[in-house]
Amino acid sequence: MPQRPPFWRQAVVAIQTNLPVLSLTLTNANQGVGLVLSWNSNAATFTYQNTTLGTQTCLSGCDTWSYALFQRTPRISATNITFLPATNSTGQLTLSMCKLLDMSWKCSRTVLSQKINTESVQTAQIVFRNKQ
Length: 132
Description:
The protein is mostly beta strands.
């Protein structure tokens, strides 16, 4: 009988919501790797920390970074597709229900003593999966 591949678990395991540092801790349990995405509002940096590779600064001059956690189940209407928040029946955030991470950020630079946006708001969505 063929062996089944190991169970893969990707998940948000912790959040920090107190400024000056916002962060998300993610895991890939199959590979034993932890990941931390964090934004330091004082330093205006967004970093990625991997438990095996160390910390890397991904964005400097990062003025804002925000995230939202959603369930995988979408609400589909005639004009829109939206996702339900990762909350339980009482409205409390429940990390184990998170299957979709939506992140947004905006960066700027100072050029000739004027602060100029380097881009409009950028977004990324990450879907977490369990795979057997």
